[in-house]
Amino acid sequence: MKDPYSVILAPVITEKSTAEAAKGNKVVFWVEPSANKKEIKEAVEKAFNVKVLDVNTHKVPGKMKRMGKTAGRKPTRKKAYVSLKEGDKIELFEGA
Question: Which CATH homologous superfamily contains domain 4-86?
Answer without folding.
Answer: RRM (RNA recognition motif) domain (3.30.70.330)
